[in-house]
């Protein structure tokens, strides 16, 4: 029988106005660093995990490798772990749930872009996927439904706002615990989105996004950094290597 306590603990951390902060990890070492810093949960980044394993993002990672990476993260920390699983790597919902639960993870992200084409998925099809995942998982997984409308927008985010809200409401009705309008950064639109959806909202923290205190004021319940920590670590490593190759001090600066 699956232990639902990690999911219960993770779900309780999604508090509008007092958001769960998730500096996404990519391996056991980075996960331990997140937990050691005092964060109450760990999230993986599919892009960071994929690149660290030598693959590209966009479901190019064999599902066995992705799930093995998630399992290593789970084993390495004493806090709940939620896994970024793109759109499920082609697994049927019941199999996806069974295999993820076997890793010990307490949650997952599912996005509404087709990794084969890069296009937005049909909203009914995506809602069906989320409903099937919820039916298979019961309360044992926290489902974070990514809404990719703003990721695909080529102009003003206000022009596609209503479509993002429509999708978020459908996904929530299908059983998602949280909705994730990735790349939504305008504070006015974030506030409007939170109010319109009436469910826990996840915002990606990056350059140009309001800070954590402002996101809390806007009612956001979850803040994640995506591949941002991984990118910063790689940038720092590249700078050290360049200094060393030039005969300088890799620890300076």
What do you see in this structure?
One of its GO terms (molecular function) is lyase activity. InterPro entries: ICL/PEPM (IPR039556), Pyrv/PenolPyrv_kinase-like_dom (IPR015813), Pyrv_kinase-like_dom_sf (IPR040442). With 253 residues, the protein is of the alpha/beta class. The chain has one domain (5-245): TIM Barrel, CATH 3.20.20.60. The protein is 46% helix and 11% strand. The chain contains eleven helices and eight strands. The chain has helices spanning 5-12, 28-36, 46-52, 63-76, 93-103, 123-137, 149-152, 161-173, 187-197, 212-217, 228-245; strands at 20-22, 42-43, 81-84, 107-110, 142-147, 178-181, 202-204, 222-224. It has a five-stranded parallel beta sheet. A three-stranded parallel beta sheet has the order 1-8-7, with no helix packed on it. The protein is globular. The chain starts with a helix and ends in an 8-residue tail after the last helix.
Main features:
single chain; about 250 residues; alpha/beta; TIM Barrel; 5-stranded parallel β-sheet; 3-stranded parallel β-sheet; 11 helices; about 10% strand; Pyrv/PenolPyrv_kinase-like_dom; lyase activity; ICL/PEPM; 2-methylisocitrate lyase-like PEP mutase family enzyme; Pyrv_kinase-like_dom_sf
Summarize the structure.
The protein has 253 residues and is an alpha/beta fold. The chain contains 11 helices and 8 strands. The protein has one domain (5-245): TIM Barrel (Alpha-Beta Barrel).
Number of DSSP strand runs: 8
Secondary structure tally, helices: 11
The CATH superfamily is Phosphoenolpyruvate-binding domains
- Spatial strand arrangement across the major sheet: 2-3-4-5-6
Average predicted confidence as pLDDT: 96
Strand content: 5-15%
Mind telling me which CATH architecture this is?
Alpha-Beta Barrel
- CATH fold name: TIM Barrel
Taking the sheet with the most strands, its summary is: 5 strands, parallel
Which class of secondary structure composition applies to the elements? alpha/beta
Shape category: globular
GO molecular function: lyase activity
Keywords: Lyase
Organism: Micromonospora kangleipakensis
InterPro entries: ICL/PEPM, Pyrv/PenolPyrv_kinase-like_dom, Pyrv_kinase-like_dom_sf
